[in-house]
Write a structure and sequence with these properties.
The chain is mostly helical and 88 residues long. The protein has a single domain, classed as Chorismate Mutase Domain, subunit A, CATH 1.20.59.10. The chain is built from 3 helices and no strands. The chain is elongated and about 55 Å long.
Length: 88
């Protein structure tokens, strides 16, 4: 049971980093949204999304993370960012 406790503590520390990093990412994408609005750019950039997916899948492969997980997380992030940009 002690080993389980240690694993869970490690997971909790990683979760802290993940959520903090994700919050920082969304703070930056909020700035991107404001800039796009000011410059009258569309909220969706299919070329950028394709580039991001390719890059993220390469990172996932190097890290040993399943591609479907990486793709799902990226899709959730992109969809949320686009939704936020449309509201801005």
């Amino acid at each position: 049971m002690e080993q389980l406790k240690k694993f869970r503590e490690e997971i909790d520390r990683i979760d802290d980093v993940l959520i903090s990093t994700l919050a920082m990412r969304f703070q930056i994408t909020d700035k991107v949204g404001a800039l796009k609005k000011a410059e009258k750019l569309p909220p969706v950039d299919p070329q950028r999304e394709a580039e991001q997916e390719k890059r993220i899948l390469e990172i996932a492969k190097r890290a040993g993370l399943r591609e479907d997980i990486a793709r799902s997380v990226l899709r959730l992030i992109i969809d949320t960012v686009v939704e936020d940009h449309k509201k801005a």
